[in-house]
Specification:
With 331 residues, the protein is α/β, with parallel strands linked by helices. It has 13 helices and twelve strands.
Length: 331
């Protein structure tokens, strides 16, 4: 049985292992509709009760595929998160996300205005076929996504998207709000601006990276804000010993990152621990972390993650990783 944790101070429960719905959209018709449904049902049968998606993922395809199965299930038995900040528009009015292989007839347009947040959520509900989204996240207002344009994006979100999220929570339309981003620094900034419930942080607090341990995670713990860890395998570098197949932040792996990842792998193997199991379990050792949500694209990946999250990991591994400077101790 997969344990559950609360999101912030809310009564929203998520399983420690969640379902990252990005790949279900990104792969397009490399997975059939029935195949996508089978993947979702295997996750449900395995005890996963937290599902994450977004309009970005396959230009709406992920939300459709996730919703198709969740419609059949008891609504109060699972938690669902989706995101706002990118509107789906006709292809001539926006830009296609180049890494996704779907054939949905839409493009993306960034819009962090107050009204756009409401429109985006309503459109997501239609694609999902559900009556509510439990956790609504403002998507990608970080430097990682926008580069030099990020200050303007952040200002727009501060005046539009963030107040809209707060209003939706106050009205009881959603249960929890926060950000879904690739950098902890923008989360820290928002945490000083407003009361949020959670942050979905992709790739920045993992077996490979622990900078948020210094100040950000303690602040979250103090303020009862939960962290959901996306990309716990750092987009792949922690799951393979084949550098040609590995990516880090969805790009080729730099030398120093590859060397550290392989040192972590060797240490895990010296304790007879699958490094993927350590990667899933490590963030959950911190009290601020509510869930890890690896993206999945096959039944085999779901089954593997279910097996990995159930593994017993000796305390000696965490001690040795810390002593060798490979992964910091969590106390």
């Amino acid at each position: 049985m997969i344990q559950t944790r609360n999101i912030g101070a809310t009564d929203t429960l998520v399983t420690e292992l969640g379902f990252g719905g990005g790949p279900l959209g990104a792969v397009g018709d490399r997975i059939t509709e029935d195949g996508a449904a089978a993947i979702m049902r295997r996750a449900w049968d395995g005890g996963i009760r937290y599902f994450d998606t977004a309009p970005l993922y396959g230009h709406g395809l992920s939300e459709k595929r996730v919703g198709r199965v969740l419609q059949e299930l008891p609504r109060d038995a699972f938690a669902l998160s989706s995101k706002v900040g990118r509107l789906l528009v006709p292809q001539e009015e926006g830009e296609r996300f180049p890494r996704h292989r779907d054939r949905e007839p839409f493009a993306i347009r960034y819009d962090y205005s107050y009204d756009a947040i409401h429109r985006s959520m309503e459109s997501s509900l239609k694609r999902l076929g559900l009556d509510r989204i439990d956790i609504l996240l403002c998507h990608d207002i970080d430097v990682w996504t926008h580069g030099d344009a990020q200050p303007g994006i952040f200002e727009a979100a501060s005046k539009g998207a963030l107040p809209a999220l707060r209003a939706l929570r106050e009205q009881g339309v959603v249960r929890a709000i926060g950000l879904g981003v690739n950098e902890w620094q923008v989360c820290d900034r928002v945490l000083d601006m407003m009361d949020v419930d959670c942050f979905l942080l992709a790739g920045r607090f993992t077996l490979l990276e622990q900078e948020p341990l210094d100040a950000f995670l303690p602040k979250c713990l103090e303020r009862h804000v939960s962290i959901i860890i996306g990309a716990p395998y750092n987009s792949g570098v922690l799951v393979t010993d084949d550098r040609r197949a590995a990516t880090y932040d969805y790009r080729p792996v730099p030398d120093h990152v590859w060397q550290k990842a392989q040192a972590i792998r060797r240490m895990c193997e010296s304790h007879d621990v699958d490094p993927r199991a350590a990667a899933l379990r490590y963030p959950l050792r911190h009290a601020a972390v509510a869930a890890v949500i690896p993206g999945v694209r096959s039944i085999e990946e779901v089954e593997t993650n279910l097996d990995l999250i159930a593994c017993d990991i000796p305390d000696a591994l965490w001690r040795d990783l810390a002593e060798d400077g490979l992964a910091r101790a969590i106390v």
